[in-house]
Amino acid sequence: xxxxxxxxxxxxxxxAGGDETMxxxxxxxxxxxxxxxxxxDARGWPxxxxxxxxxxxxxxxxxxxxxxxLRSLRKTRAQIDEFRPDFIVVWGDDQYENFREDVIPxxxxxxxxxxxxxxxxxxxxHDAADKKFHAAGNVAAAKYLAGxxxxxxxxxxxxxxxxHHPLGHAFANxxxxxxxxxxxxxxxxxxxxxxxxxxxxxAQRGGLPAFENPPSEAExxxxxxxxxxxxxxxxxxxxxxxxxxxxxxxxxxxxxxxxFLTAKNNFLYxxxxxxxxxxxxLRAGNFDAWRNYPAASVEASGQQEILNWMCLAGVLAExxxxxxxxEFIDTWIFNSSKCFLTAPPPR
Length: 347
Hints:
Blueprint: E1 3-9, H1 24-29, H2 47-53, H3 59-83, E2 87-93, E3 107-110, E4 114-117, E5 133-136, H4 139-151, E6 157-159, H5 169-178, E7 189-194, H6 227-242, E8 247-253, H7 272-284, H8 287-291, H9 295-300, H10 306-319, E9 325-329, E10 338-343
Parallel strand pairs: 1-8, 2-7, 2-8, 3-6
Antiparallel strand pairs: 1-10, 3-7, 4-5, 9-10
Helix pairs in contact: 6-10
């Protein structure tokens, strides 16, 4: 019988840069020509947001935000090292990276022998742009998972080689951040891409809003898979690996509500109350709140990437396991809520 470690982390891209650049997404959102005038100056912001911005445009707050993220990442890495998985399945979103106009699968398993990817530009480690990182894959286990899911009624896409991009940042950053201290990363990975961005994956290229020429309703794409479907997908994944010979870490890699997706907050800050409600439900083992979460609420709260965590919530429900450790890291100015979770098998 297989053993499963459930894990949730963030792949927050600005963490790879310096403290002085961490608030760049907010600065971009302040250039929105449709932004109400009162929000163009920090004096019109909520008090807590002004405090985080401070007198240095968030640089001091960025240092504290980084330290909180790194504490949780290092704790997560320690849990993974203690568990010693044979490989890690990573649920992550593809933001117009590997999947583009030619095909957008609802979800896709990467049955690749290995992965080669470059570090982000201007990164905090001072890695050169031409440096290459390598991660092993596990073709046999990826095919085993794809076959099991198809037999269980999930028509799952799979691939044997990249299409447009060697490895999207949801997966590459998971490796880079879990090895932030550059100790080495010996674990093979099986990326499991989820179409989190749904109606905006092509129309907005899975990224920042195009304020100058926003897509019309007719130009939006079909929706992402529903929370219920992805919850059930995660539960099926747990069943498949529970009956396998492997020790497996099942990981969700994403932020939660994103400011640049939250129109009701003028794209300035995330929907933290909506995130906290889901976080508390997850901590308490109230998995029905996750499975029954409306897709419309995902979009309204800019929580597209939480669909990766829907798979993880399904894992926990299937294993009848509450998280052992959780962390909720909120922010007003650094684009997204970040959550961490570990749920090891009972001793």
